[in-house]
Amino acid sequence: MTPLRRLSDVEAAFARTHALMHGTTQVTTHVTVRGDLDPAHFRRGAERWVAELPLLSLRIEERPDGLWFTTGPGPRPGQIRHDPPGTPEWADDVLRGELNDVLETGGPLWRLRLVRDPGARASHLYFTRNHAISDGHSTGAVVRALLDALFPPRPTG
Question: How many CB atoms lie within 10 A of CB 26?
Answer without folding.
Answer: 22
